[in-house]
Design goal:
alpha+beta; Aminopeptidase; Alpha-Beta Plaits; 2 domains; four-stranded antiparallel sheet; three-stranded mixed sheet; 12 helices; globular; metal ion binding
């Protein structure tokens, strides 16, 4: 088996430009599922994935959603999940190059929307399968691929597909979930005032401005040091045990490695153990954007009639989405009342994903990292997805 793997990894190294070119093709398809105008691009990406799988001898069916019978096999089955849709991306967001044009940096990093999240994984699996096929190396297992095109919109339809396919995909198997993400509760705050946008030169200082109200509400959610101001958020977090705390002291992840990931010294905590705890076991709140706000180049002097802020709370084990929703909406409504702005408020949770309870930073993570990037082989790194 070791000789076969050597053949496989040699193929990867000898064909690195072809592999990168394949990822470049995938990145170039702007499959932004949250934009209805780009839904056709999501379908185009689905066809791109399907065509490559068919060429490699796979049986493929695009589900919208539906069911598919799996044939009985003697080998063990491994179900692989990835998604091929991406988040929106514009040059004005801070990208140095066209986000849908994969660029290889001098240090070997590959930069493009979806390069790592999650087209990199889709393409990685396709190219892995292709390498085995081209080198006539038999797969030791059966691979079942579940590639999704609506993950960035809350996985619309996936729950039904998984439920319909459960007897085929999960019958008689042990399943393992490896995740680098906490649970997620996504909220929106809509503040409205005038019936239409107004000119600040005429109405500035005359009307209560929705943008001012919204920014005060958003800023009040969380402190600069990351402390969440919503009462009750930390009440659900499991108490830190002595055994768990020892786990953090034994981790090899360094501050330098994290600073390299974020591109500078903007980390919250100085103490590495506390930093790792905030990364893995405590909830966090992030503000993501404002709809209705002027963001194009230039000096527009409009007073928006209505603006919508977006933020999310990343949850940890023991936190219930419904409880998080209730205390968050209640907090926003109380803070809004204090402002006496006479504007109108709508606050609600848009979507949520509950976290799987897991042991923090267990050995599986170490094995996963080594499997993805073994020291003996040069595999292109990806960044900024």
């Amino acid at each position: 088996m070791e000789d076969k793997l050597s053949t496989f990894f040699n193929y990867v190294n000898e064909n690195s430009q072809y592999l990168i070119g394949t990822l470049r093709e995938a990145v170039a398809i702007p499959s932004v599922s949250s934009d209805a105008k780009k839904r056709s691009e999501v379908f185009r990406m689905a066809d791109w994935v399907k065509d490559r799988l068919v060429k490699l001898g796979a049986d493929v069916k695009i589900v919208e959603p539906g069911t598919q019978e799996l044939q009985a096999q003697t080998k063990k089955n491994i179900l692989i999940y990835c998604h091929y849709d991406v988040q929106p991306a514009l040059l004005s967001d801070g990208w140095g190059t066209d986000p849908f044009d994969l660029v290889e940096k001098k240090d070997g990093r590959l930069v493009g929307r979806g390069a790592s999240d999650d087209k990199g994984h889709v393409v990685g699996w396709l190219l892995t399968l292709e390498a085995f096929v081209k080198n006539q190396v038999e797969l030791p297992v059966n691979l079942i691929f579940c590639f999704e095109g609506m993950e960035e919109c809350g996985s619309v339809g996936l729950e039904k597909v998984v439920g319909d396919e459960a007897s085929n995909w999960f019958k008689g198997v042990d399943y393992t979930t490896i995740s680098m993400l906490d649970g997620m509760n996504y909220f929106s705050i809509n503040v409205s005032g005038p019936v239409a946008d107004l000119h600040s030169g005429v109405f500035g200082g005359v009307v209560r401005e929705p943008m001012v109200v919204l920014t005060k509400l958003l800023a009040g959610l969380v402190e600069v040091d990351g402390k969440i101001n919503i009462a009750g958020t930390h009440d659900q977090v499991m108490k830190l045990t002595e055994e768990e705390e020892k786990t953090y002291h034994g981790l090899s992840l360094t501050r330098e490695a994290l600073e390299n990931d974020v591109g500078g010294d903007c980390l919250m905590e100085k103490d590495m153990v506390q930093l790792l705890m905030h990364k893995g076991r405590y909830p966090s709140l992030s503000v993501h954007g404002i709809e209705g706000a002027f963001y194009d180049p230039g000096s527009k002097t409009v007073i928006p009639a209505s603006v919508k802020g977006k933020f999310s709370i990343r949850t940890v084990p023991n936190m219930e989405p419904e409880t998080v929703k209730n205390i968050t909406v209640e907090y926003i409504e109380k803070e809004f009342e204090k402002l006496n702005s006479k504007c109108k408020l709508e606050a609600d949770k848009r979507c949520s994903d509950q976290i799987y309870e897991k042991s923090v930073w267990n050995r599986t993570r170490v094995c996963e990292r080594r499997m993805i990037n073994p020291n003996n082989y040069s595999i292109p790194r990806t960044a900024q997805s």
